[in-house]
């Protein structure tokens, strides 16, 4: 409360026939009148409403699992009590699933007094590829799931996790689904920022973030063989969950906390940090995680301070402008002994720099063709390549 009032109003406003809807509301030990309001709503709502009241579980996984066990519809949607739906949300998402036979549908999310993911809403997609699209960067539970998929694989939220449990559930659904669709031309979900700032995602010890990263990385490793596809998915937990633990907050952490973070990170870096993941990151991201992998907190402090200051790293161009290195701290330091490749910018990061030339993708065939031409000229002096080929 009071966010629940608008949340339930958005449910009542759905354009889908109320007879096709069931609402299962789990009051997880609230003390602010939520339970009483849910009972009132159930008594007057035009759709089926089940209210379950229980002792506080300490996290979102338990209540969601309770609700999921009671669900009977073809699809389920997890709506947080702080947030609200667009009026046509369920109608559009179900139509998309039925049209394409897909098991998961992402509806466009818009933030209200808080940020929301943006990179995956560029285009409505009947089918999105989990590996190459940006849907892997939105793993919250607020998706439409075909219930038969969840039941077939016995999928439930991990109640041992107090943050990141939705990422684990959603990514598993992406990987097991008979396709994933994206509704990008209509705002289906409004992610509402609370005035008290008490969203679950903003609270909790740093150790919980490592628990979340560990679980997600293990899921990916268990479900996807080693190689490019696994590396593509591993970018998400490294970038979104692990890297922030070695951001600006690291500068104010005590020596004990810094040491503990490195201890927690070591088995993850040893098991899952690969060149394929590293090359898909920006230079400063790759450099920080490389130093974590090398267990060098002393060097990391300098890099984090540089990044926090929002300085533009200088650049060094080599190989006739086709290789560009960004000069973050410890570049080519004999004492640090960090490989040059860690500082090498990929074309996307290098293009804004004057003098950078993107290497020709087919340079090897071009070199081979030049060699053939030289050979033919020696064999058939005085004749052009065209005449010799004819």
Automatic annotation (TrEMBL):
CDD domains: Glyco_tranf_GTA_type. Gene3D superfamilies: Spore Coat Polysaccharide Biosynthesis Protein SpsA, Chain A (3.90.550.10). Residues 210-303 form the TarS/TarP linker domain. Residues 2-153 form the Glycosyltransferase 2-like domain. This is Glycosyltransferase. PANTHER family: GLYCOSYLTRANSFERASE, UDP-GLCNAC:BETAGAL BETA-1,3-N-ACETYLGLUCOSAMINYLTRANSFERASE-LIKE PROTEIN 1. InterPro entries: Glyco_trans_2-like (IPR001173), Nucleotide-diphossugar_trans (IPR029044), TarS/TarP_linker (IPR054028). It comes from Streptomyces tricolor.
């Amino acid at each position: 409360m009071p966010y629940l009032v608008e949340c339930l109003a958005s449910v009542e406003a759905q354009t889908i026939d109320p007879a096709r809807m069931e609402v299962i509301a789990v009051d997880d030990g609230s003390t602010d009148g939520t339970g009483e309001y849910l009972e009132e709503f159930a008594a007057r709502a035009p759709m089926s409403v089940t209210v379950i009241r229980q002792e506080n579980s300490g996290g979102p996984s338990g209540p969601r699992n309770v609700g999921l066990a009671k669900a009977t519809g073809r699809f389920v949607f997890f709506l947080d009590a702080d947030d609200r739906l667009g009026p046509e949300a369920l109608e559009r998402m179900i139509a998309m699933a039925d049209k394409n036979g897909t098991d998961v549908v992402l509806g466009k999310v818009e933030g209200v007094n808080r940020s929301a993911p943006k990179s995956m809403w560029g285009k409505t997609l009947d089918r999105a590829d989990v590996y190459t699209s940006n849907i892997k960067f939105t793993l919250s539970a607020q998706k439409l799931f075909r219930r038969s998929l969840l039941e077939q694989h016995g999928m439930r939220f991990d109640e041992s996790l107090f943050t990141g449990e939705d990422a684990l559930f959603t990514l598993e659904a992406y990987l097991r689904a008979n396709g994933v669709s994206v509704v990008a031309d209509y705002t289906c979900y409004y992610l509402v920022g609370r005035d008290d700032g008490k969203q679950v995602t903003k609270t909790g010890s740093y150790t919980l973030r490592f628990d979340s990263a560990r679980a997600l990385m293990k899921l990916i490793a268990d479900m996807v063989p080693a190689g490019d596809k696994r590396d593509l998915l591993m970018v998400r937990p490294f970038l979104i969950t692990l890297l922030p633990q070695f951001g600006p907050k690291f500068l104010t952490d005590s020596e004990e906390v810094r040491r503990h973070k490195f201890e927690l990170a070591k088995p993850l870096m040893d098991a899952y940090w690969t060149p394929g993941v590293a090359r898909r990151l920006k230079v400063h991201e790759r450099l920080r995680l490389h130093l974590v992998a090398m267990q060098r907190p002393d060097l990391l402090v300098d890099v984090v301070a540089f990044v926090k200051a929002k300085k533009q790293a200088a650049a060094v161009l080599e190989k006739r402008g086709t290789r560009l290195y960004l000069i973050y701290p410890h570049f080519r330091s004999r004492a640090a002994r960090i490989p040059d490749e860690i500082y090498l910018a990929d074309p996307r990061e290098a293009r804004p720099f004057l003098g950078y030339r993107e290497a020709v993708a087919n340079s090897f065939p071009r070199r081979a063709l030049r060699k053939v031409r030289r050979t033919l000229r020696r064999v058939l002096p005085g004749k052009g390549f065209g005449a010799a080929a004819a």
